[in-house]
Amino acid sequence: MYKVTMGDNVIEVNEGATYHELALEYEKEHGVMPYLVRVDDTVKELRRHIRRDEKIEFLFFDNDTVRETYTRTAIFILLKSIYEAYDKKLDAGLKFRIKNGYYFEVEDEEITEEKLKLIKENFDKTVESKFFIQKTSYQKQDALDIFRKNRMEDAMLLFQYNYKPVINIRTIDYYVKYINGILLYDTSYITHYELRKFKKGIFLIVPDTEDVTKVEFTDPGEKIFNIHNVSVDWAKKLQINTVGKLNDSIARGNFNDLVIMTESFQDKLIGDIASEIKNSGKRLILVAGPSSSGKTSFSHRLMYHMRAVELNPYPVSCDDFFKERSETPVKANGEYDFETIDAVDINLLNKTLNGLLNHEETVIPRFDFEIGTKTFKRTPLKLSDNDVIILEGIHCLNPALLSNVDQNSIYKIYISALTEVCIDNANRIATSDLRLMRRLVRDQRTRGISPKTTLKLWKNVREGEEKYIFPFQERADILINSALIYEFSVLKLKALPMLYRLTEDKEVSEIARRLIKILNYFLAVDTDVIPRYSIIREFIGNSVLEVG
Predict the structure, then answer these.
(1) Angstrom distance (rounded) from CA 100 to CA 218
(2) Which of 42, 280, 300, 530 has a beta carbon 3.0–4.6 Å from 545's, enabling a disulfide?
(3) Domain 65-220 - what CATH class?
(4) Which fold is adopted by the domain 2-60?
(5) 234-540: which CATH architecture?
(6) Confidence class of residue 12 from pLDDT cuts 50, 70 and 90?
(7) Sequential DSSP letters for 329-347
(8) What is the pTM of this model?
């Protein structure tokens, strides 16, 4: 017998009992079924066996990990449902996520409304069947044989370059997949979801709030959808759209070519933007994007390309237009809120930019963050006809920021790091995870911020992005993807040592372990071949640009 402590209650259970058995008893008493369980600060599946005396906590839909697991389980069911709709001959692929929508396509096929109806029927049948989601551990060679038998080439290639002697494979009924991460106990847990046809494929929409019954489809936006789609398709054409294919290219000695090709593609894109700005005659260039998207490096490279087409760019930072500390908005917890647009002195910013655009002598303030005030000691600036302003900041696409500036003079750029590489067709890597790893490496190197602090603050950063950045991304004239196909392999050696030291820290161990698992899929590479003007240099160091 084992003693299990839940809150103030101690329960005796037999050897071999599972957490699911305890969850069923909990449901009888409280009327709600747990999704997962936390045991000694580790989140576990309900199928697991209790093996000793321990303290546990059941987790529900108000937990971030539960919502992620719900989504992962729904994706698994959808892949099975699409496979069945195409007579078990064609597999679907998860291409990317936008908001709470996960976009799937079938190779060389359009998912019609008729097929969508059949997919939905298959999905509902799978949920109603309450299939137990099996997890089976295989020796590596046996797992590779299963992948080969089930035509799972991407999974097979993934583990050819992975040290793991044992591989876990998941099964729903007959359907086999490798799934990166924990899953729910059975298929009946997916009570709320929606499927929507979009372009050639479909979106799976899942609840993304603490209310599992709330499933709302938000239009992904034509521009953000296109930049995601183009990026993934480009990686696919290069045959480097999965971790296994990237590792294979590196192992075959093609890394130098990959770097040169990727950087050349990005450089041409930036050059084309400079030419477009020149032809448009617009003189105020706005650059916005979420944290660690590479805004600063991009802005510097854009300035060089502008000079190449005979424009003279002048950078202006929104940070220099913060309100005085005494006027800064305060959060409910008493901390200053520097993320809100209300922290910006909008009137002064508009007046300054109008002065510059009207060729008036204008002083740009400098904000002193230590004392929380602006100074006006810079030399006055007066622009000529070929001079343009580059304004960088998280609020640059918010129409409230520059409401008193001539909109015809503005060219708007949105930049983010959108991962083109997935683990395989069932497992994506979140774009926010790429930005977090960038920030982790940069914060410690240039800002003296500990990795633990970076991980702890990330949730607040993401909440600010959802409020102040993402709602305005469709207002951009052009969207830029700053992600580089190879950069997880670059970040690996920089980030892993920091993350390993946090695996036993109760406050951040869960996220640290998850990021370690992602990085360990990738082969590491030497950074010497990466150009010193590359956007990734803003984070790993040794950049020739003034980016910290």
Answers:
(1) 8
(2) 300
(3) alpha beta
(4) Ubiquitin-like (UB roll) (3.10.20)
(5) 3-Layer(aba) Sandwich (3.40)
(6) confident
(7) -B-TTS-B--SSGGGB-HH
(8) 0.93
